[in-house]
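BUG: 3D viewer hangs when loading the predicted structure for this chain

Environment: internal workstation, default settings.
Expected: structure renders.
Actual: progress bar stalls at 90%.

Input used:
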Amino acid sequence: MFRKILYISVLLPGIVWAQTAEMTVKQVREDMNFLIKNIDEISVDPYRKISRKDFVLELQNAEKSIVKKSIISNIDLYKAFQPIIVKLEDGHTELTISDDIAQTDYFIFPFSVRVSEEGVFIKSIKSTYKESVTGDLTGKKITEINGKNSLKIVELLQNYTSGESKKSRLELSEDYFNDYYNLFLEKGNILEITVSQDDKLKIPLIRKSQKKTAVSPKLVTKSYYYELIKDKNCAVFTFNQFVNPEKFRAFLQDMFTDLKAQGIQNLIIDIRNNGGGDSELGDELLKYIVTKPFSQYEKTLVKYSDIRKEYLLKASEIDSTELKNYLSGISGTVGVIDHTKNIIQPKEQNERFSGNIYLLISGQTFSSAADFANAFKFYKAGKVIGSESGGFIISAGEVVERQLPNSKLFLNVSSTIDYNIGTKEKDVHGVIPDSKVQAEEALNYVLEKLIK
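Structure tokens produced before the viewer hung:
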């Protein structure tokens, strides 16, 4: 059975976490060549948006700029190379810096934000700052951060976040905003921001080491859970991560048994904040809500490489048939997996949910979550509500994680391209909702407008 898994993370012996350390000119060049070699060998078609010649030339120019520094760090390498990788427009190919920042005593930015071409907007105040930041700031535009204009910040975010389009890059950047703040915008212990043109705030920042460790159970993010709204004869199933298939399988059985026992006739599936993971979870959920045999995918293009073969041999979650087929492929070639021949049977009628189903999606719906949303719409399982998914319906698939030999930065490289069910070659977009609603308003829209 085909499974799309977001990351294949199998590290070779001796690999360590990155540290900010000085690098030589030779080491910078070795890391650059390692990066190019791995993208060349692992990725299916990396140079669709920028030619290989231009890609390599831009990396070489960046390298020349780096080596002029008296002290070269892995952060310098990231800042120079990641904007060039972004030009590949592959949401799964990137240099990552989050693990390096996590090892520092970083500042916690006070707000969760929404990012669009119009600017940066406050979604909520983080719990760490609830006592020190007062006033109703939700929805307000941040026009300046530490003297940097909001639109300049938007430009920076789209240059450093990998994604298939400008829109998806900005939406993905929301998840990394705290990292970007510490890398590019931080100017000491005080945050100076301007909100809605003229409201200037100075906020003392809290470092990671100063954050209170006690966490309320209500603030813990669960991968999936459901709640009943009995006056609406409705269940809201919040699905945040495609992880742990065995646990999810048991969870679904319990949930749908309970919904049937309670006589629930309306089910809202909320994947607005789901970044993906293991596509097998999408298959398990579809079994309960579609009426005929299905597949989430039309086909997958697979690049055969010695590098990925080595990783697959070490990965414990890979199906033995899939592994055998991949190992038999000739390295350097691209194969095609036809998924229409491997359809999945739904549950028996008495086990399936027979009521109304509403799926909530947003620009934060990526990867396997977007694949599920596309299948949900294709098989007419219910109505899709919200904004276009950040994940495209033809997109990069499984990732091989590599580590640059000297900077120790991690490089993710996509090794497949997945074509969702019903897609055509020119379908360069995310899942389009049946009813377009601001993502944050989607749940209320369903409860107030669609469920009578």
